[in-house]
Amino acid sequence: MHPLVTIVLGSTVLTVAGIAFGGTFLLRVASGGVPTNDLQKTFFRAGHAHAGVLVTLGLLIAVLTHVVGASPGWSAAGAIAVLVAAILIPAGFFLSVLGPDPTRPGRMFAAVRLGAVSLTAGVLISGVAVLAAGIAAL
After folding, report:
1. Is 115:87 a contact under the CB 8 Å cutoff?
2. CA-CA distance, 86 to 64, in Å (whole number)?
3. Please, what is the end-to-end C-alpha distance for the chain in angstroms?
4. Would you tell me how many other CB atoms lie within 10 Å of the CB of residue 31?
5. Which residue in 132, 120, 7, 121 sits closest to 71, CA to CA?
6. Which of 4, 5, 44, 62 matches a 20 to 30 Å C-alpha distance to 13?
7. Phi-psi bin for 69: left (phi > 0), alpha (psi -120 to 50), beta?
8. Burial of 122 per CB tally in 10 Å (0-12, 13-18, 19+)
9. Each residue of 39-72: pLDDT tens digit?
10. Considering all CA atoms of the chain, what is the largest pairwise distance in Å, rounded to the nearest integer?
11. Strand (E) or helix (H) holding 108
12. How many whole angstroms separate alpha carbon 126 and alpha carbon 73?
């Protein structure tokens, strides 16, 4: 695995502490300690859930593509695209409902859509890279 990818993955593992802190924020929201409306509660939950799942998926894809011997360039591209989605999608959920009482998501919701494109590209690249490695190993 390329050292740069290893550094990205190590940094990603460290973000789990931030995701865990986000869980404590959600507990404060759920207990009424942080004043929020229903839209904010829903978007905060979605942002937190997507962060955890996509970070896990990005790490899994990086390890999987490395283990099967996929092309290092494609392997890195796929994993990094998924990890970019792990930033964009939660950021879009959280930042699009900031303010005292939003009634609908703001312009930052575009980050969710951009993250979805990055996620789709990342899993397609990774899936094809794993399939190609399997076929080449036959």
Report:
1. yes
2. 18
3. 22
4. 8
5. 132
6. 44
7. left
8. buried
9. 999 999 999 999 999 999 999 999 999 999 999 9
10. 59
11. none
12. 11
Listed residue (68, 67, 60) closest to 134, CA to CA: 68
pLDDT higher than threshold 90 for residue 12? yes
Give the Å distances, CA to CA, from 112 to 26, 65, 91, 104.
20, 26, 8, 14
SS3 state at 132? helix
The pLDDT tens digits of the residues spanning 92-124 come to 999 999 998 899 999 999 999 999 999 999 999
Q: Under DSSP, is residue 113 helix (H, G, I), strand (E, B) or coil?
A: helix
Residue 17 binned pLDDT confidence (cut-offs 50, 70, 90)? very high
The token pair that represents 109 in the structure block: 């919701």
